[in-house]
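A brief tutorial aside. Many learners find it easier to grasp structure tokens once they have seen a single protein encoded end to end. The record that follows does exactly this for FAD-dependent monooxygenase. Read the sequence first, then the structure, and try to relate runs of similar tokens to stretches of the chain.
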Amino acid sequence: MKVLIAGGGLGGLTAALALLQRGLEVEVHEQAPELREVGAGVQISANGSRVLHALGVGEAVEREACEASGKEIRLWSTGRTWKLFDLGAESVARYGFPYYTVYRPDLHGALAEAVRRARPDAIRLGARATGFSQHEGGVTLHLADGGTAEGDVLIGADGIHSAIRHQLFGEDRAHFSGMLAWRGVIPMAALPAHMRRTVAINWVGPGRHVVQYPLHRGELMNFVGIVERDDWQVESWTQRGTTEELANDFRGWHPDVQAMIQAIEVPYKWALMLRPPLERWTEGRVTLLGDACHPTLPMMAQGAVQAIEDGYVLARALAGAAGDDLPAALLRYEAARRERTNRMVLAAAENARRFHNPALAELEGAQAYVDREWAEDRVRERYDWLFRYKVEEVAV
């Protein structure tokens, strides 16, 4: 069996590695001329690190990542701190695997290296997917340079602006969420000494919030700031902003937030879009994974992890199939994943409201609100179902 994958991001490479390890032939067609990821952070909770260890790349990722020693909520104005659950030893004790905060290029590089070790020519660069055609017994992937690739199955892992999804199900039904996100990666040495901690922090406030966490063996700090604004609606990770504009969006916030903003060399901004969950991901021998089928707001820190889960479960479904059973195997994968990912998308939208609540404007209201919304039992209820998931046991 030969599997074509459109897109060489985290989900596409996870699927490729899991398929190669099961003895299937794989071609990954990636539009970029070189294989690299944007310089940004990603959180990999236990349900995701479980997959990385199952694929044999867990130790390589761990060498470059951080195991955050804890998580905190801090108030936008005063810096008042509420300690949440431990993310290190407790994650291993409770879920069996660690919680990593990872520099995205480190994770991407570990997966790409493992794929190339399994099959040196598996990844084809400068190969942008534009569409496909299905025929009896196979599928043809069409590329922007006029070339084609033939396979038994096609996986659309080509991201939020997926050409494969567009051909399957028509126009993208995205609408603006009313929020834009800022991102930046900061050398840890550029921050004041008291901020150089291996702790993940959510700064919460009315109408906006900031997330920070350590990356790359603690040498970097990731910054993500999300603000309610309606004057920027470009959905791209490569749009540059200015330090002045970013600082203005968080004017009046705590000096620690201001210190991070001033230490970002180039801040990037992108509009956060909402998309209704797809009712179907699969048509014949073609299916989708990751952002191509369940793009999400970043407020559950699960977008990358869910793509990684998709890739592993899909490989399990295909490994047990052959010939005429391939469309049925893709439908089994979809059935195994759709309800979970839809729930995650809805939970992320709910968290956006939680992080930006007007009750956070003043200390007195914030104290009661945080005590209620981030009480241990409520946090467990929001995250346990995600972290306990075992990709190797899902019925496919």
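Self-check: The radius of gyration is 21 Å. If you spotted this yourself, you are ready for the next section.
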